[in-house]
Specification:
The protein has about 120 residues and is mainly alpha-helical. The chain has helices at about 10-15, 30, 40-50, 60-80, 85-95, and strands spanning about 5, 25. Strands 1-2 form a two-stranded parallel sheet. Strand 1 (about 5), helix 1 (about 10-15) and strand 2 form a beta-alpha-beta unit. Helix 3 crosses helix 4 (about 60-80). The radius of gyration is 14 Å and the shape is globular.
Length: about 120
C-alpha cells in the first residue's frame, strides 16, 4: 500500500470523508510535537528547518505537500543521527522566544547535529 505524508492530515481526511489506516499515515504535525505543548505550524517548521517561506499571500496545497515531505526526510535524518529530540527542544525554545515565527535577522540554527545538507522545496 501507499503511505500518505503531510501536515495535519487528520483534518484533511475528515473533510473529504476519506479513511486511511493509521499505519499508512505519516503526519509531520505529530512528528514535530512534544506532548503537552503546542503543535508547530507547517509555516514555522518550513521557515526554521527548510529555510523556505511558504503560505505567503495564498495557500498552495502542492507547496504544503512538498514541505511536509521534506520535513519528513529531515525528521528521518535527525532521528538516524540520534539528535532529533535536541532539535525539537531547540525549535520549541526558538519558537517561544520569537513568538512562533522565524526572525529575519536571527534565523533558527541547530548546529549540534547537522544533517547532510539543507533542503529546499525547490529541490523536489
Amino acid at each position: 500500500g501507499c503511505v500518505f505524508v503531510g501536515h495535519g492530515l487528520k483534518n484533511d481526511f475528515r473533510i473529504i470523508n476519506f479513511v486511511v489506516p493509521p499505519q499508512q499515515v505519516v503526519d509531520t504535525v505529530h512528528l514535530y510535537h512534544r506532548a503537552g505543548r503546542r503543535f508547530l505550524s507547517l509555516r514555522f517548521l518550513s521557515a526554521a528547518i527548510l529555510r523556505s517561506q511558504i503560505q505567503g499571500e495564498t495557500h498552495d496545497s502542492i507547496e504544503d505537500a512538498a514541505a511536509a515531505l521534506l520535513l519528513y526526510r529531515k525528521y528521518l535524518e535527525y532521528k538516524d543521527a540520534g539528535c532529533f529530540d535536541e532539535l525539537l527542544d531547540a525549535l520549541y525554545a526558538y519558537g517561544k522566544h520569537y513568538n512562533w515565527s522565524v526572525s529575519p535577522t536571527n534565523p533558527f540554527h541547530f548546529d549540534s547535529c547537522p544533517p547532510s545538507s539543507p533542503s529546499s522545496i525547490n529541490t523536489l
